[in-house]
Structure formats: C-alpha cells, structure tokens
C-alpha cells in the first residue's frame, strides 16, 4: 500500500464510496488497512459524502465497482476511476469513463519522480498476491523509460 502516499501528489483528493470503504476496511487489522486508515486520517482519501445513485443497473459488478461508476456518471463523467478489476474497467469504459489501474498509477508516480523505479515496484507487487499482466507491465516500463 505504499502507493497510497502517491495519491495526494498525483490526484489531490481521492474519493471512495462507502461500499469500497467496507471492502477495504474489513476489520482484519492488516497493514493495508492501517495504510488506508492513515490516508483517510490525512484527508486525501475520503468517503463519498452523498448517497450513491442506483442507476444504471450494473448486475455483473460488485457493489464497490458499481458505486464508483454510478457516482462518476452522476457527476458528469469527468472523474478518473482508479480500478483494477477487468470487468469493472470494461463497463466503466463502455460508459465513456476514464479508468486507470495500479500499473498506470505506478507509471504516473515514476513520471512525476515520486519513485525511483517502476520496475522495483512491480517486482514487489509480483512478490505479493497482486497480479498485473506482463504485457501491461512491459508497456508501462517502456513508457517511463525503464525498457
């Protein structure tokens, strides 16, 4: 969860619906949860303050992804959604929304000088249970001049 500290520089404030907050703060007390709580306490990760619209119907997505897409659409579709799940990304893009995943955020962090090596971050992710396709990693590494 080291990337949470990059969010404030890259995006200012990041909003998440309560549905996502419940998913990521399950109460297990993991290090990831502590990092998310710290980001919330610092004020750059915030819970969306309003009710989430109930349309459009998005039956193939989980509650968090659906809420993110519905909020972005209700707000005029100008948001950048940070989303990794393939199905959620596809549906968001079908609705004309801009989407960036973890790999793109790593690339942005490298481009802005927030990290010395995108390759090193991808390597640490690879050692965890988080997976990004080799083709996506290669694309980002080329884009940031590490290939």
List keywords for this structure.
single chain, 147 residues, Rossmann fold, two-stranded parallel sheet, globular, Nucleic-acid-binding-like protein
Instruction: Estimate nothing, just give the exact number of structural domains.
Output: 2
CATH architecture of the largest domain: 3-Layer(aba) Sandwich
End-to-end distance, in Å? 25 Å
Radius of gyration: 15 Å
Low-confidence stretches: none
Mean pLDDT: 92
- How much helix is in the residues? 40-55%
The SSE string, one letter per element, is HEHHEHEHEHHH
The total of beta strands comes to 4
What percent of residues are in strands? Answer: 5-15%
Which structural class do you get from the secondary structure elements? mainly alpha
Pfam families: DUF3368
InterPro entries: PIN-like_prokaryotic
Protein name: Nucleic-acid-binding-like protein
Summarize the structure.
The chain is mainly alpha-helical.
Describe this entry's structure for a reader.
The protein contains eight helices and four strands, in the order αβααβαβαβααα. The protein folds into two domains: 4-102, Rossmann fold (3-Layer(aba) Sandwich); 115-143, no CATH class. The longest helix has 12 residues, at 31-42. Helix 5 links the parallel strand 3 (80-82) and strand 4 (98-100). It is mostly helical. Helix 6 runs parallel beside helix 8 (134-143). The strands form two sheets. A two-stranded parallel ribbon has the order 1-2. The protein is globular and about 45 Å long. This is Nucleic-acid-binding-like protein. It comes from Candidatus Symbiobacter mobilis CR. InterPro entries: PIN-like_prokaryotic.
């Amino acid at each position: 969860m080291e990337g949470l500290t990059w969010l404030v520089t890259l995006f200012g404030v990041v909003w998440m619906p309560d549905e996502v907050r419940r998913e990521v703060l399950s109460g297990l007390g993991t290090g990831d949860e502590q990092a998310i709580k710290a980001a919330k306490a610092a004020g750059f990760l915030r819970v969306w303050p309003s009710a989430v619209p109930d349309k459009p119907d998005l039956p193939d997505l989980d509650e968090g992804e659906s809420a993110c897409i519905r909020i972005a659409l209700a707000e005029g579709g100008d948001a950048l959604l940070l989303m990794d799940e393939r199905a959620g990304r596809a549906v968001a893009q079908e609705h004309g929304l801009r989407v960036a995943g973890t790999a793109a955020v790593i690339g942005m962090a490298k481009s802005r000088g927030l990290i010395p090596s995108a390759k090193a971050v991808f390597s640490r992710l690879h050692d965890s249970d988080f997976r990004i396709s080799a083709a996506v990693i290669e694309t980002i590494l080329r884009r940031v001049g590490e290939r």
